[in-house]
TrEMBL record:
Residue ranges constituting the AMP-dependent synthetase/ligase domain according to the UniProt record: 39-224
UniProt name for this protein: AMP-binding protein
PANTHER family xrefs: LONG-CHAIN-FATTY-ACID--COA LIGASE, NONRIBOSOMAL PEPTIDE SYNTHASE PES1 (EUROFUNG)-RELATED
Gene3D superfamilies: 3.30.300.30, N-terminal domain of ligase-like
Domain of life: Bacteria
SUPFAM superfamilies according to UniProt: Acetyl-CoA synthetase-like
Length: 379
């Protein structure tokens, strides 16, 4: 057993030093938000390097246990897919797996990440930080959709920011589904956007643009996406029951992570996520995956931030409701969008509401619990 060291994620140099020591067998690291330096436990197993607390939009927080081998396998596979080691820009908090992995990848590349510093994400700071990169070395960064949207909005008005965005050899984009329109706008500006899928339980994204990283594998069991590979987490801190529910070992001895997401392979063999298994409603006797409805309506202009939640209906049981942070659209337009996506008529949204600002979690994801609580039942 060895110590678990709490480190402020806002102190990037200290967190970088602590992660470097952890990868070398030193104390495991528990990155925390500024002002909260209480360790969740005194000691952990010797092979652990990092404990990351999740902040999912529907589940209660979990503390995910990651070994040095899992972090290294993920980072090495990422560099293999992107085309080699490079310099990383840290634009996400280090207490989230995407931010911590930027630091890990940097360490394995023999460098330290370029950090945006304290304060909220700002497109100009993002652009100015990119100037410090050596132009002969590949440059990478990792963003969530809300950050990319801010950069793209600014880049369409500012050539300096546009040039900075286009200078990155890859922009990893994860955390939640991104509107196709946002990706198209970013690519028009010269950005190479790589959509990632994964979680803290897989040491970050382990499926890039629908294809698993080297060493990772995907299977679909009863429509649920399950993942395996050397980047899998060891489980959850002091929570054996939740660990047993999330991870299972098959007859061959292979350990799988049950994501709770619904998915399928498309005609090209790429993974396509339909939504959360716990976000499927029964509407008039028909199963409706709200994630598919959300993907369809986000294709409409101005609805890139739209969130689809269930609303109780006395006749149908539950129906789909769309909530946006500002733009407004008719129910007819929403119905046309879901019909065009090939969804069943039961998937047509029956309510549209604006919540400004849209409730968000600290991770940048929409707070679905708060959004759902704001929607009154149909009468």
């Amino acid at each position: 057993m060895k110590p678990l060291l709490p480190v402020s994620a806002s102190d990037v140099p200290a967190l970088t030093r602590a992660l470097a020591a952890a990868l070398d067998g030193g104390a495991a690291v528990f990155p925390v938000a500024a002002g909260d330096l209480v360790a969740p436990a005194a000691e952990v197993d010797d092979d652990l390097a990092l404990v990351v607390e999740t902040s999912g939009s529907t589940d209660a927080p979990k503390r995910v246990l990651l070994t040095a081998d899992a972090l290294t396998a993920s980072a090495d596979a990422t560099h293999d897919v992107l085309g080699g080691i490079g310099r990383w820009l840290l634009a996400l908090p280090g207490h989230y797996i995407a931010g911590a992995q930027v630091i890990v990848r940097s360490l394995l590349a023999g460098s330290e990440p370029v950090s945006l510093g304290a304060g909220g994400f700002d497109p100009r700071a993002f652009a100015e930080a990119s100037v410090s990169f050596d132009p002969t070395i590949p440059r990478y960064t990792s963003l969530v959709p809300v950050q990319l949207a801010r950069v793209v909005d600014a880049a369409e008005r500012d050539r300096f920011i546009a040039a900075a965005l286009g200078s990155f050899d890859a922009v990893l984009l994860g955390g939640q589904a991104a509107p196709a329109e946002l990706i198209a706008r970013a690519e028009t500006l010269g950005a190479r956007v790589v959509r990632t899928y994964g979680s803290s339980e897989t040491a970050g994204g382990c499926v890039y643009d629908g294809v698993p990283l080297p060493g990772a594998r995907i299977r679909i069991v009863d429509e649920e996406v399950q993942l395996t590979g050397p980047m899998l987490a060891a489980g959850y801190l002091r929570d054996p029951e939740r660990t047993a529910r999330a991870f299972e070992t098959d007859a061959t001895g292979t350990r799988w992570y049950r994501t709770g997401d619904l998915g399928a392979f498309d005609a090209d063999g790429r993974l396509r996520i339909r939504g959360r298994a716990d976000d499927v409603i029964i509407s008039g006797g028909v199963k409706v995956a709200l994630g598919e409805v959300e993907r369809a309506v986000r294709a409409l202009p101005g609805l890139g931030d739209a969130v689809v939640v269930p609303v109780a209906d006395p006749e149908w049981g539950e129906r789909a409701a769309v909530v946006s942070g500002g733009a407004s659209v008719s129910l007819d337009a929403l119905a046309e969008a879901t019909d065009a996506a090939g969804l069943h008529p039961a998937a047509r949204p029956v309510r549209f509401e604006v919540l400004d600002p849209l409730p968000m979690l600290a991770s940048g994801k929409p707070d679905r619990r708060a959004i759902r609580a704001s929607i009154a039942p149909l009468r």
